[in-house]
Here is the input.
Amino acid sequence: MRTFRLVIACPDRVGIVAKVSNFLATYNGWITEASHHSDTQSGWFFMRHEVRADSLPFDLEEFRHAFAPIAREFSMKWRVSDSSELKRVVLMASRESHCLADLLHRWHSGELPCEIPCVISNHDELRSMVEWHGIPYCHVPVDPQDKEPAFAEVSRLIREHAADTVVLARYMQILPPQLCQEFAMQVINIHHSFLPSFVGARPYHQASLRGVKLIGATCHYVTEELDAGPIIEQDVVRISHRDSVEDMVRLGKDVEKMVLSRGLRHHLEDRVMVHDNRTVVFA
Amino acid sequence: MRTFRLVIACPDRVGIVAKVSNFLATYNGWITEASHHSDTQSGWFFMRHEVRADSLPFDLEEFRHAFAPIAREFSMKWRVSDSSELKRVVLMASRESHCLADLLHRWHSGELPCEIPCVISNHDELRSMVEWHGIPYCHVPVDPQDKEPAFAEVSRLIREHAADTVVLARYMQILPPQLCQEFAMQVINIHHSFLPSFVGARPYHQASLRGVKLIGATCHYVTEELDAGPIIEQDVVRISHRDSVEDMVRLGKDVEKMVLSRGLRHHLEDRVMVHDNRTVVFA
Amino acid sequence: MRTFRLVIACPDRVGIVAKVSNFLATYNGWITEASHHSDTQSGWFFMRHEVRADSLPFDLEEFRHAFAPIAREFSMKWRVSDSSELKRVVLMASRESHCLADLLHRWHSGELPCEIPCVISNHDELRSMVEWHGIPYCHVPVDPQDKEPAFAEVSRLIREHAADTVVLARYMQILPPQLCQEFAMQVINIHHSFLPSFVGARPYHQASLRGVKLIGATCHYVTEELDAGPIIEQDVVRISHRDSVEDMVRLGKDVEKMVLSRGLRHHLEDRVMVHDNRTVVFA
Amino acid sequence: MRTFRLVIACPDRVGIVAKVSNFLATYNGWITEASHHSDTQSGWFFMRHEVRADSLPFDLEEFRHAFAPIAREFSMKWRVSDSSELKRVVLMASRESHCLADLLHRWHSGELPCEIPCVISNHDELRSMVEWHGIPYCHVPVDPQDKEPAFAEVSRLIREHAADTVVLARYMQILPPQLCQEFAMQVINIHHSFLPSFVGARPYHQASLRGVKLIGATCHYVTEELDAGPIIEQDVVRISHRDSVEDMVRLGKDVEKMVLSRGLRHHLEDRVMVHDNRTVVFA
Here is the structure.
């Protein structure tokens, strides 16, 4: 069912819900899902409505036009999207295939509502797998001595493919600040630890040294500070003294791909809102 | 913070949210929490609002009066409650103390928003524990040959203490149909299995024989059909071949008390709505 | 590291562990993993040793010869296997791809220690995916009016490919009793419910009707009685009133493939022993 | 059933298992549980046997005498304990009752195999609850300006009550280094975060600021470095943007008490071995 998704954040005050639901009712909008959140710490209000598109008398453009006065009145940050206009997601990977294969299969079987215009990798190993899915594979090697040209090419490819979302599916390279800024809150990373524990490289080795009893994965938006962006989704799996670092890597893969696919799904369905480096996820 | 909780179920149609939020906005109601659910299978709509009591110009009685026309217009089943008017919960137990001790401690430490006018038990073992908490203990033995007098006394005690909720905290007796009807959707049971598996007696023995790898507990409203009432909450814990029935009993206790306290909390906060023998839980 | 896996079940009595570990120590066997279980209910003892192959002075044949007297003395059911001799696993699927794609990827990336001589399906949809992995695809349509010829062909293919394990990766057909007997404790199924709840067809519909708060999946050996064979692994995922049957199907897929791959892995590593329709899993 | 628990750690080499199981078999020892672990990183071997006491011809003293030569031969760190000689556990608490009440109830209902000679607290709030259980309550106020006298008294009380284990059940005071050394690997703490995230004070506030999607608790041995001792047990619970710090505190309580009771139980049953600031837990 085609829906419009109206996503709003604004300073909290009385009457927001009434105003918005009145607006929708005026046009006979059939609400299929509604979520609110009053954040008492920040004093902000967050709201998401999903409305059957065929119940409304206008298209997205007119919706925006009609809603603009309300948005102004309440100083809203807002967006409205059409579920039938799929987001364009560029996937980036390195040599590890588990996250990429998982996302490609979900997309291929119709479970992940997006388009994937291309996959970018700094290695060539995963080309055949990607191309079997009918998706172009862009091999952009990264010269450790001079990474700039590679990232310039990455930036160009993202823009060329009109992507609105970039997923680092175990890409294993740190994006330069400029890329982080250019695509703020559009780049999603999967980190293989339960952040904020074990930031940076080799988190499973860090976990093994510390002797933790659970290992985890964290899906978050990429910001300039490494592994410190707003967290979208996390999960853990139980380990024991019997699990070597290799076992952790294997067990961790399943958590990584589950957490990444869940986090990405929330993003694709416009369920994630960011405020003060934290997320509201209307799951 | 004192709130009014408005809980509504009605046949789904356009304009319900607008009507209700308009009503609240008209009186400057400050909504602290709002939840909606459109059940496409049954065509019913469910809604719960929590509104700051001090933001509204009237008390509960006037609220009911003012809202009644809207309720009629949309054929609503509805109720509004005051968070400061605590529900009165009669606890019933047998010999096992874990669920009862857990609920009493939560209540005693201020975590469980209710009053406990008395505890009823068919045995006398737990009297001292209950009385330490300052709660009257009613010992109502059940004669296996003639249970009727005992249940008549139970019914009398529930009414005498003006209870609106009864919790079977491992009471181990099957309530007669008449009691189930008299207090429909007011009696909460904890069953020590992941229902609908292992209905009836000795579920851990049944689980052991079947060789399951997880055991669970189910919190549900009591209906005339044994262990078949609407489910409020469930959870499981992992077991293995090493766990004997005794281990399951021990491990199960922790799940039972967690599931019961979570389910009861949802009920006390008016978060549970029943339709077609299933629950909507706005947790 | 190449290991021999010695797996033993026998009536419990004093001295079994000493006898077996003495045997291994006599030949300087380097034990890398050892697990025991005394089942007090049945009076049986279960044991599994993993021993570095290069620490022993003989091959599998001589191992069997040398150990046989001990096995006789203690009336053991036993087997010893070589980790470098991979099991041969025939996968069977229908139209749903999630379990098959997951297993193929794990195999392809070297995570699943087995050979996959062929995939058998009653439909032709998944041929291209399978063949991309370099695995033969056998399309064996099942005539609903006369299923016998199809299952005769399935049986022939399993034997032709010298498979020792068959995995029903959402095959959606009930195997005839003859096949169940012929390959007893060699056929692994994934059922999309937390057994014994919701045996048979459309378990997610059954779960939705019953209003459960968790849905699950069960990996088990196939026996003649439908969905009643020994359980190897189970897991669950939380759902709520908001999840339609379609949502359950989607959420369930992730549990199904995780549970199936974990259960299969245990089987491939000779960690599963069956006794009285229950499993001992030395995970 | 009364058992002897033989717990061993030593440099790994061939023949340890054979030697130990031979020793037990020689005396007709009936092994009810056996666990091994070869740590490839450190090259150490860990082993735990539980043996029916009535199957052995000697008491604990003679056991130690008979086993000593083997222990010397393999340079073992080892201990053997009698399940019927309960550990003596001093509980320490502050004002928060949830962990203390949970442990007391488990002890009172016979679930926790230990003796509790006294409870020490820096406040007087929990006296009545403790004394209802028939346990002496020692109020030892801590002067923030001069903590030494209080900790000297704590140390004296622990020794006076011949405790072999001390549990900080949300004691909220940092033990001085001297106490940590005096009772090394005997003091168990519950920290209300998933360590190593959020060391130190107010972990739920830290978690809220960071916007994590799971909060946790960690049960660990206390060492001189704050919240950095060997981890015995951990667990987490899911939270969302809707959960305030107060909600986290409430939800966290349940994880804290579960994790603490599980960790303590492992310790009481001699299932925990410490090596290189990490634990082997034969659960």
Residues 205 and 245 of chain D are 6 Å apart (CA to CA). The longest helix of chain D spans residues 245-268. The interface with chain C takes residues 14-15, 17-19, 21-22, 24-26, 28-34, 36, 38, 55 of chain D (CB under 8 Å). The mean pLDDT of chain D is 96.
